[in-house]
Design goal:
Layout: H1 2-18, H2 20-23, E1 34-40, E2 58-67, E3 70-76, E4 81-87, E5 92-101, E6 107-109, E7 114-118, H3 129-135, E8 139-142, H4 148-163, H5 168-177, H6 180-191, H7 205-213, E9 227-231, E10 239-240, H8 243-252, E11 254-258, E12 263-266, E13 272-276, E14 284-288, H9 297-303
Parallel strand pairs: 1-8
Antiparallel strand pairs: 1-4, 2-3, 2-5, 5-6, 5-7, 9-11, 10-12, 12-13, 13-14
């Protein structure tokens, strides 16, 4: 009789485990270790070689957190650190997009996101003993502009997978299969070339995402496509949406332009500058107002000129 009862208990436990996804309980409820991750937001204005005063005033950060089992979005002031509890070694990406004031005091979206991916960008280092005492052995992640592109790629995969009703277990397995460490190393290697500035947002983002999604990714997908440089002018009063490029603009008085596409920059008061053309001689320049930030963030940001790609443009394979 006792043996029969034990069998029944085992069966019930198995049914509970199998029905976690459908019952609203996360699939990691049983038997999995958790850890805390401390995420440090970027400084503003960015530390980029002396043009900090030219950056517009920050209103707040839009912080997005994606894991296979969780999606969160927050509005955070500057110089904050956020702590999340996650599964050990479960893939996680965090992006922070600055919302700034334009010359009229209105909130606008222009700059590309900073970001990080876990556990691929982990640094178990803390600035002081007090922080270590508070956070213990948490993983410390610093959001950087250079890693924003990688975080955006993982974020896009999470979003699309959830739209296609992937379970958290399937998403975790799918995202973890890709070699994110190698991707980060490829980008870091390109960014270390001091002679030839590299902006990862100028590669074919759709091709990169499809390469990851369909297991056909190659390093040459990270090459900038159809790009040429133009003179930024003597005053250099122009800002790129990719923050690291602004130091290069100040140093070399040149900006990168992608052929036959809309390239958006801004002046120091955050008025938009659209540059389009196939060559230096055939450029068209137009001044515009940058997209205003409104409470319906998802709708605004999806159609913003600062967004590279609609997530529905690529699909997963099961």
């Amino acid at each position: 009789m006792k043996y029969l009862s034990f069998q029944m208990i085992i069966c019930i436990l198995c049914l509970l485990l199998m029905s976690c996804e459908n019952s609203g309980f996360p699939d990691f409820l049983f038997f999995e270790d958790k850890t805390s991750v401390c995420v440090k937001l970027p400084s503003w204005p960015p530390v980029d070689g002396g043009i900090g005063a030219a950056y517009p005033k920050l209103s707040f950060w839009i912080v997005e957190v994606h894991t296979p089992s969780f999606t969160g979005q927050y509005e955070c002031p500057s110089a904050e650190s956020l702590i999340f509890e996650v599964l050990k070694n479960e893939p996680l990406c965090v992006t922070a997009t600055p919302v700034c004031f334009n010359s009229d005091g209105k909130k606008v979206l222009f700059f590309k996101c900073a970001g990080t991916v876990y556990p691929f960008s982990v640094h178990n280092q803390f600035e002081n003993h007090n922080q270590n005492a508070v956070y213990g052995k948490n993983n410390h992640l610093e959001l950087t502009w250079e890693n924003g592109f990688t975080a955006y790629l993982m974020q896009s995969l999470f979003r699309n997978g959830k739209k296609l009703s992937y379970t958290s277990f399937e998403l975790r397995d799918y995202i973890s299969r890709f070699n994110w460490d190698k991707l980060i190393n490829y980008i870091e290697e390109k960014q270390s070339d001091t002679e030839n500035f590299y902006n990862p947002w100028l590669c074919d983002v759709k091709e990169v995402l499809n390469g990851i999604a369909f297991g056909s990714f190659k390093a040459n997908l990270l090459n900038m496509k159809n790009v040429f440089t133009i003179d930024a002018g003597e005053n250099n009063e122009i800002l790129s949406s990719y923050v690291p490029e602004n130091k290069n603009i100040q140093k070399k008085s040149e900006i990168l332009i992608k052929k036959s596409e809309v390239n958006v920059f801004s002046d120091y008061n955050l008025n938009g500058i659209i540059i389009k053309g196939d060559s230096v001689q055939g450029l068209a320049i137009e001044y515009i107002s940058l997209p205003l930030y409104i409470e319906e963030y998802e709708k605004t940001f999806a159609t913003s000129i600062s967004a590279c790609l609609n997530d529905s443009d690529f699909l997963f394979e099961r």
